[in-house]
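cron nightly-structures :: item 1 of 1
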Amino acid sequence: MSLPRTAAISADVVLAALPDPVLVIDADDSIHWVNPAAEQFFGAASSSLRGASLASLVTADSPLVALVAMVRKHGSGLSDHGVEVAGPRLGAHRVDVGVSPVLEAPGSLVVSVRPRSIAESMDRQLSYRGAARSVMGIARLLAHEVKNPLSGISGAAQLLEQNCSEADRELTQLIRHETDRICALIDQMDQFGEEGTVQVRPVNIHEVLGHVRKLAQGGFGRHVRFTERYDPSLPPAAADRNGLIQVFLNLVKNACEAAPESGGGDVVLTTAYRQGVRVNVPGTRERMSLPLEISVLDNGPGVSEEMRAHLFDAFVTSKPGGTGLGLALVAKVVRDLRGVVEFESEPRRTIFRVRLPIYIHDEARANRANDDSRASRAIQIGDNGHG
């Protein structure tokens, strides 16, 4: 339907409709105007953003600040791609940034931000899902064809142990312990063979993260300092509690093992509501909204370049004695929940993000919620995130 010729659409209305964050800054780099997507991106309402300095939202060495300075110096628009923008409430994001002068208002600039991590993660999901599926056939074979003879070996060793010498008993015990270890490994792999019609229920993400943190602090994470930055108004996820515990126990364990052991190890758990994240459900025409973002960040050495392309593949690991199944299981469980998982890594900063749908009991309301941009919702994040 075309608009009447007499209808006028203001620039504010057009900019407010854009899915990418846009803000206007004055000559002194204070924020004059933001669209709803920028409110969501910076985690604050427009009333608190207007008048704030750009430097208060991002780190002092941010490429965004440098790009603004260059535009003021040269007087022409510039853009930069794949830069990291980070701030106290913002977290850190890989984005494309454009800055242009407003000719009608000397000294004013328009800053547009296009988050890249979400788009790139959508492309990676096919390979992550393929990685999880690639081991299903192997898992079934091992589970059904290998465990039975292993049980026989363990039983035979136990019978021998009753009538053997002390020296030989050590060998029979070694046989039993090793067969038990292999059986445990196969049990873990067998989870991939479950095509998984997950029983989705409302799950409190913060309760799951609290449970995982307690498990970590009682064992593998004793040397780590945990920080929690949660959105207290986060709605429940449409998920399976035990599945999420598996996912975040793996991610937190990896983060703790990557963090420095001799003091200074940090793991940050973050939750946030991100509007506008939608993906296609494989095999259907349905589009799923994934507004819940849960992040696990560590300050370890980061993921090596050669590992990144295969990080979610089964049997791929950089850990001595590792099985390489943890992140493949994460990819499988998140896939079953119709979510996505992504990661960014550099020295002293590796972050894994899991994006999930919210739980809405009524299916009709759920469909409407997937179409709802919730542009007016401003996130209030409380100050309390490998492979």
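cron nightly-structures :: done
The chain has three domains: 11-115, 120-131+199-371, 138-193.
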